[in-house]
Amino acid sequence: MNTAMNYLTVLVVFLLLAAPSLYGMAHDRRIDRQLRRARQDAERASRQARFTTVA
To answer: How far, in Å, CA of 34 to CA of 17, rounded?
Structure first.
């Protein structure tokens, strides 16, 4: 019982220390997805503008 409680304590402390970093990583990934989507939309719009002015 004491060993299990020690492992659980270490796990909780680890999660408390790792949580801000994991949250920051998730935030960065969300921003990266938004930037990628905006870049794709801009490229798509520029391609459509090129075809409408050429045709």
So the answer is: 28
In tens, the pLDDT along 11-49 reads 999 999 999 999 999 999 999 999 999 999 999 999 888
17's CB contacts (< 8 A; 6+ apart) are none
* pTM of the predicted model as reported, rounded to 2 decimal places: 0.64
pLDDT of residue 52: 77
- Report which DSSP code applies to 50: H
| Residue 11 to residue 20: CA distance in whole angstroms | 15
Task: Count CB atoms within 10 A of the CB of residue 52.
Answer: 8
3-state secondary structure of 54: helix
